[in-house]
Amino acid sequence: MPEKQEKKTLKRRNTLGKGLGALLGENKSETPTPEVTENVTPEVQQQVVEKLDEIAISEIERNPYQPRLEFSDEALKELADSIRVQGIIQPITVRKLTEKQYQIISGERRWRASQMAGLEKIPAYIRGANDTQMLEMALIENIQRADLNPIEISISYQRLIAECDLKQEELGDRVGKKRSTVANYLRLLKLPPEIQTGLRNNMISMGHARALVNVNSIEVQLMIFDMIVKNELSVRKTENLVRDVIQGKDLKKGDVKTKNQPLDFEFSRLQRDLSTHFGTQIKINNATDGKGEIKIPYQSVEDLNRILDILKTH
């Protein structure tokens, strides 16, 4: 590359770096970088370190407060392919633990994908934070930017309230949501595990789940849940069923047109027990001649390996 062109490229990269720093409020003239010793003190951890640096991937550990429970292997591979071509467009954010040890605050997907792409170093903003600040920053960062499912969001809200000592109003302000929205998410955690699993695996929507929360009986909740899944009921039809139950009407499976051979009590109970055991919504299709099949869905390769591990132990 000619010398002039190389200088021009370097200059352009420096300008890009300044732009990123400006966006994140970086101002080294106002906030000096504290000197970090072998063991970082709580006082230093409280400070925000305005520093963008390249850090060895081997010196970075995952975030123990990460609210995301699953990472799609396919999505990580796509991101890794992009990183090989384009590099890291947005640096991750870490906190410094020791001289050569860092912990992710946000950007675990980029860190994982960078490992897959074969990178040895990754650009990172270094911040100081204690454990409470770390938890709060990580949860809020992921709630606002990651594609979490409703149950993961609900658990994150619950952790922010319990572990960061926040009230629902304060939490709403931090995440930019109304108090009623926060309350609706927290109510989802009152649903039985089978329904939470169905919501997590996109078998029902947030609207279905919000309607089911209003039913006091777990048995009736599960019955309506089975109807939703088997008959692909809309949110409106689900709300109507729930309203009938609240008004004291008996819920009969004959009130809803069924697409499949209905399961008797024993098969329904077995289906629920298997779903709870495997952490995914098992489907049992039972034909009139006694034949049938059991379907075990999985969401990713990691989820499949988890299910296989459960099978191996029995």
UniProtKB/TrEMBL annotation:
One GO MF term attached to the UniProt entry: DNA binding
Family membership: Belongs to the ParB family.
Gene Ontology biological process terms from the UniProt entry: chromosome segregation; positive regulation of sporulation resulting in formation of a cellular spore
A Pfam family: ParB_N
Protein name: Chromosome partitioning protein ParB
GO cellular component: chromosome
CDD domains membership: SPO0J_N
Entry keyword set: Chromosome partition, DNA-binding
Region feature (Disordered): 1-40
Biased composition (Low complexity): 30-40
PANTHER family: CHROMOSOME-PARTITIONING PROTEIN PARB-RELATED
Domain of life where this protein originates: Bacteria
Domain ParB-like N-terminal: start-end pairs: 53-143
